[in-house]
Design goal:
This protein is of the alpha/beta class and about 260 residues long. The chain is built from 9 helices and 10 strands. It has a 6-stranded parallel beta sheet with strand order 5-4-3-6-7-8, with helices on both faces. Strands 1-2 form a two-stranded antiparallel ribbon.
């Protein structure tokens, strides 16, 4: 969501300003099933919940950052700590995945993007994907990752699916690699090959959006690297239902925005 005159943006977890997430900090969320969200003409925010947007972005572009971009930033830079030259598997072409692709590429690392759409994979290449895999054509996509990495596995994996897919990620990641676990599309639980998890000395991180400190750090990075969020379509506020239907269709590539 965006307005035409918004000078600031909100964080999904405004009470988490810095440091690790704690039960005390995780006391108030903007959006989600337990909150009203921001699809409204007027919304009141606490002072600590807003910060300046990157100067190179429009209001609509800045409106895409609080959830998808910050989650990707948290995973890529704070947990996986991606370094130049490393390989990073990024699953799918949703909002978090596209931001992760842009961040990984800007850091000088090697994004490997998976999707069920060849068309979307071609567009991912334009964002910096060094290699792509269509998991419909290659259901055992982890084998493709091993081929691309000379049998060693990827340094890091941005896991957005969950469920049984986690075991594929375990096969695809290198020894002492990391998996940033974000998605629950395949359900709220996942079977795990504990032997492989232990034997490969893998780090698995649960990712919950990010802090205000991370947000400011990310915004500086976006501005200094002149990154631009991928906005698929912008709808008018009166077209909110159509926007949600379009989002549900899965036809989009990038974010779907609503402008007042």
């Amino acid at each position: 969501m965006s307005t035409s005159e918004a000078p600031s943006q909100d964080s999904l977890l405004p009470t988490v300003q810095d440091g690790e997430l704690t039960a005390e900090k995780d006391s108030w969320a903007v959006g989600g099933s337990a909150a009203d969200g921001v699809l409204a003409e007027n919304v009141i925010f606490k002072e600590e919940a807003v910060l300046e947007i990157p100067r190179n972005l429009s209001d609509v572009e800045a409106a895409t950052l609080p959830v998808a971009a910050l989650t990707a930033w948290h995973a890529v830079t704070r947990r996986s700590r991606v370094q130049s030259g490393e390989s990073v598997v990024i699953q799918g072409t949703g909002g978090v995945s596209l931001f992760a692709t842009q961040f990984v590429h800007a850091l000088g690392a090697r994004p490997i993007v998976t999707s069920s759409s060849d068309q979307k994979l071609e567009r991912a290449k334009a964002l910096g994907a060094a290699a792509t895999i269509n998991y419909k054509k290659f259901p055992a996509w982890e084998e493709q990752i091993l081929e691309l990495t000379a049998g060693l596995g990827a340094d890091h994996i941005i896991e957005v699916v969950g469920g049984e897919n986690l075991n594929r990620s375990l096969k695809a990641v290198k020894v002492s690699g990391s998996i940033s676990f974000i998605g629950v599309m395949a359900g709220l639980s996942a079977p795990i090959n504990t032997y492989q998890f232990i034997a490969k000395n893998v780090h698995i991180y649960g990712i919950e959006t990010g802090s205000g400190e991370m947000f400011e750090e990310m915004n500086s990075f976006i501005e200094s690297h002149q990154l631009r969020p991928v906005v698929d379509t912008t709808f008018a506020f009166s077209e909110a239902r159509e926007a949600l239907r379009y989002l549900e269709s899965g036809a989009h590539f990038g974010k779907v925005a609503i402008r007042f």
